Write the structure tokens for this entry.
Amino acid sequence: SGSVVAGGGAVEMCVSNYLRRLALEIEGKEQLIVLAFSKALEVIPRQLCDNAGLESTDILSALRRKHAHEGEDACWYGVDIEEGGITNTFELGVWEPSDNKMNSFESATEAACVILSIDETVISPPSQDPNAHASGMMGGGGGGGVG
């Protein structure tokens, strides 16, 4: 499309902030899922900090505060690896193609869904048959009652 977005983890922090606020309106397990996804997005700015030798905890806290208090006005604020803080990375000229960013979000979401689907398949519910254990239907590899 030719459009660009701010780099330096700015978009991830913006989406993370949006999801964190959205989670407050959701009840049950779904809230935990949205919060986990929100937290996972913060891996990008954290890794940028770590790779640049910066204190990621302090910078992520500053980014969270900025995005939480200023909302959309702070959407382009990300990691400033030159000064060791946060800045409007769009104005600084740290850009990423928006198509690449969308593909990254889509791929990461699809991967998480596949992992959850595999996890759901592997963890099967226990048998509802009270005699299943006695008849060897619960597995365990014991070979049955030879004896």
User: Anything to note?
Assistant: Residues 140-145 have pLDDT under 50 and may be disordered. Strands lie at 4-6, 77-80, 85-88, 95-97. The chain has seven helices and four strands.
